[in-house]
Amino acid sequence: SSHLQKKRRAATARRQHLKSAMLQLAVTEIEKEAAAKEVEKQNYLAEHCPPLSLPGSMQELQELCKKLHAKIEAVDEERYDTEVKLQKTNKELEDLSQKLFDLRGKFKRPPLRRVRMSADAMLRALLGSKHKVCMDLRANLKQVKKEDTEKEKDLRDVGDWRKNIEEKSGMEGRKKMFEAGE
């Protein structure tokens, strides 16, 4: 058992080593990211905020103040628009997350099993106590006249596909096909 304990200790030590290595890597990455952001900020400021040179006369100073005010207003409007867009997007995200959560919660599919059922049992399951009719197929058959069979024979020879389709369409047709398969 001491061999097993040694193995476990080795695995734990290895796990701890890997964890600390990963943390060290993460710290380095964060530091790199921060430095890159600082450089990006400096570049942006250099491009968008040229160093201020104050003019000598009062008139020029007032003009500069007006320009700066206009710039501040434009930037403020832009900031406000961006904030509104962000709020809207966040709201949409929240709604979608909620929908996802609701959907996940509602539809837990039960494990389905194949069940062999007679048409009778199926109708009883579907209709409950209303279903009293026994599936006596002979009782449901209508009387066929001799001429009808002649016509059907002709049709069968020609092979009228439309008649075949009509017979199988709708609930009645499905019921017939179901009963025929029983």
From TrEMBL:
Keywords: Acetylation, Actin-binding, Coiled coil, Muscle protein. InterPro entries: Troponin, Troponin_I, Troponin_sf. The keyword Acetylation applies. It comes from the Eukaryota. GO terms for cellular component: troponin complex. GO terms for biological process: cardiac muscle contraction; skeletal muscle contraction. Binds to actin and tropomyosin. PANTHER family: TROPONIN I (PTHR13738), TROPONIN I, FAST SKELETAL MUSCLE (PTHR13738:SF15). Belongs to the troponin I family. Troponin I is the inhibitory subunit of troponin, the thin filament regulatory complex which confers calcium-sensitivity to striated muscle actomyosin ATPase activity. This is Troponin I, fast skeletal muscle.
